[in-house]
Amino acid sequence: MIKLFAQRRRAQGLRKAAQGLGVDVLQAIGPADALPLAELHRRLADIQPGYETWTAEELTTALRTIRVRVTPVRGGGRTTPGVRRSAAERAIGGAR
């Protein structure tokens, strides 16, 4: 029961933190078309120190919360999970 409560509490914290995530993701991606999830995570931690405590799974969940899909992207000569700039733009209403 305590574990379930802790998980719910953590999920609420992620939802609250995800509110500004869309703008931060766009800032982290910069002019690139896409960014691997690991690199996105590093850049987000540079923008906002709280992101460094998130796991990759928590970041993926928070991205899903704001309707940004994690999809395969090319990075470092291989295909890896990542985020496309166009998906982040659509999620925050910035796509034209």
List keywords for this structure.
96 residues; globular; 3-stranded antiparallel beta sheet; 3 strands; alpha+beta; single chain
What layout of secondary structure does this protein have?
Blueprint: H1 2-18, H2 21-29, E1 34-36, H3 37-47, H4 56-65, E2 71-75, E3 78-84, H5 85-91
Antiparallel strand pairs: 1-3, 2-3
Cα end-to-end separation:
46 Å
Q: What is the oligomer described by this structure?
A: single chain
**Spatial strand arrangement across the major sheet:** 1-3-2
Structural class determined from secondary elements: alpha+beta
Helix content, binned percent: 55-70%
Strand content: 15-25%
State the major sheet. Answer: 3 strands, antiparallel
What does this structure look like?
The chain is of the alpha+beta class and 96 residues long. Helix content is 56%, strand content 16%. Strands 1-3-2 form a 3-stranded antiparallel sheet. Helix 2 (21-29) packs antiparallel against helix 5. The protein is globular. The termini are far apart.
